[in-house]
Amino acid sequence: MYIIGLMSGTSLDGLDLAYCNINHSGFELLAADTYPYSADWIKCLSSLENSSAYQYALANVRLGHYIGQMVNRFRLEHPGPVDAIASHGHTIFHQPDLALTTQIGDGDAIAAETNLPVVFNFRNLDVALGGQGAPLVPIGDRLLFSKYDACLNLGGISNISYESPSRRRVAFDICPCNMALNHLARQVNKPYDNNGLMARSGAINHALLNDLDSLDYYRLPLPKSLGKEWFVANFLPLISSRQLSIPDLLRTVTEHIAKQIAWAVKGNQIQTLLATGGGAKNNFLMARIQALIPGCKITIPSDDIINYKEAIIFALLAFLRLQQRNNCLSSVTGARCDNCGGDIAGTIYPA
Prior knowledge:
By secondary structure, this protein is α/β, with parallel strands linked by helices.
């Protein structure tokens, strides 16, 4: 089945598109691209949680039409058969303790623009079943990347996925990653800290590092997940209240990320680790992680897998949804049962 998987992450890098041939034995990535968000979209998506209900509803529809238009552009650049679109959408609210998760980018608007079936709202059923609705990629880690003990995603939020001794998939959000690093880089008019060069030039502030490491989330039992609201309420005030240079803040936050990841790896006897997401291209961050887990072999794959693993896995989730097979694991999310999540917006048939 030919599916275009779409991912829009909390780091606001842009819209990732992965054109995949998915079947029961695996996947083939046929083409992939990222369309960066304009300054207007970045401003909208970074502040929408504070908007009115009208502004939120309007952004949901407008983003859906925009995503559909980007899919049409992508298809012109990468022609070929397409059976469906899988859209994660862009997360605005994620509070599973309140049975709330929302990803904007209206599926019907995408379907109207593309005239293709769209699978979207992947998280809602799991949250309604008492789960975290996140992370969703672990079933893809199990089915597509099982040769590694664990898969680490370094996106806006870092998360990890691995098999427990009882062969149950376990996964959780570790800590903020590019969401924090990119926020700091934007303070000096850079979209991100290229290769961690600014962080490398800074010095660790141990008082701030201790405060970050002491955040309550890190002591919570599994299952657990993070959202932007937690970052804004708990993480951002700590790094915003210190009179430190941007390089020193980046150095301290980088060390915090590496420490939290090392804790997750060491605590689960992981010896081989696949690292993907934008953070896998941050040479300094990867060096700090490796230094703290010297007994673990970290594999950084090709750029296509680094950049588009999540979009590929959402294509897989849509394939499973259309096959009426479970695409979300209760062992990961804490839901009452495994489930098959995702709404389906239909195509338009000519008269």
